[in-house]
Write a structure and sequence with these properties.
Elements lengths: L12 H19 L5 H4 L13 H4 L7 H22 L1 H39 L3 H10 L5 H12 L6 H17 L7 H14 L4 E3 L6 E3 H18 L8 H17 L8
Antiparallel strand pairs: 1-2
Length: 267
């Protein structure tokens, strides 16, 4: 919650309709038991499941109740103020462009991550030896425990007749799973709104939940951006959050602010 008399609790039309669309789509996702993901969730552009419209549709889908609640709460808190400031049409364009930019940034980062794996995998298939396998895991940054098990077994049995074939099969399954992993959520667009709010109203105080202390919007946004950059670079195992999509939403928000010459408010 931010301390301000502007915006009140009224719900402007674009924010209201965006929330309604997201909720309706989330209900449909649950009723269809995930069958919408292959068609409308965002996939890596070299995946056989990729379709161009997923660049837009993914931002209206969510993976869990907490996921959609956090995004819609942020859309309500920050979006209603920004819609009143920018106007409905400009606000909608801002929201969609930030979401689209976040998708492009996310896919670009995936290209860098998957590219190193793909190149190492292609080289390994041409020379499937124990030494090449160990180097492939290192170059491709493969940390899944099943490949460590194969490496240990192959090291203990250097003449293993099936290890090369099994490793190639498992690596192919692993890579197929990576490129077919869907991405959903309005987070990229919402982070764009968060950045715009912090830029336009830098001195508005936000009340954090943990810890429950006030903080100015500009410092909150800056801190969040640093955290996302750190988390994205670290890329911890089991972290399925698209941190660079969040940063992409912020980046495109900054670009739009500069191109549209959006001014800061004094409150």
């Amino acid at each position: 919650m931010f301390n301000s008399r502007r915006g009140g609790m009224q719900m402007p039309p674009v924010v209201l309709n965006l929330i309604i669309i997201n909720v309706v789509v989330f209900i449909a996702q649950n009723l269809m038991h995930g069958r919408l993901d292959d068609l409308f969730a965002l996939h890596y552009w070299h995946s056989p499941l990729f379709r161009w419209w997923q660049l837009f549709t993914h931002m209206f889908m969510h993976g869990s109740e907490l996921h959609i609640f956090s995004n819609m709460f942020a859309l309500f808190m920050f979006g209603r103020v920004l819609e009143q400031s920018l106007g409905p049409r400009r606000f909608l364009m801002f929201y969609l462009i930030c979401g689209l930019g976040a998708a492009f940034c996310h896919l670009s980062v995936l290209s860098l991550q998957f590219g190193s794996f793909h190149d190492a995998f292609v080289h390994y298939q041409q020379h499937p030896t124990l030494q090449e396998y160990a180097q492939m895991l290192q170059k491709g940054k493969v940390t899944h425990p099943v490949f460590g098990t194969i490496l240990s077994h192959w090291s203990d049995n250097p003449t293993c007749p099936d290890c090369a074939q099994v490793s190639i099969m498992k690596l192919n399954e692993y890579f197929t799973g990576l490129i077919n992993e869907p991405t959903v959520g309005a987070s990229g667009a919402v982070f764009g709104l968060l950045f715009a709010f912090g830029y336009m109203y830098p001195n508005v105080e936000l009340m954090l939940l943990f810890p429950p202390i006030p903080i100015k919007a500009k410092w909150f946004v800056a801190g969040y951006a640093v955290f996302e950059l750190f988390a994205g670079v670290k890329n911890s195992v089991g972290d399925n959050i698209a941190h660079f999509a969040h940063l992409g939403g912020m980046l495109f928000a900054f670009i739009l602010i500069r191109v549209w010459h959006i001014r800061r408010s004094m409150w």
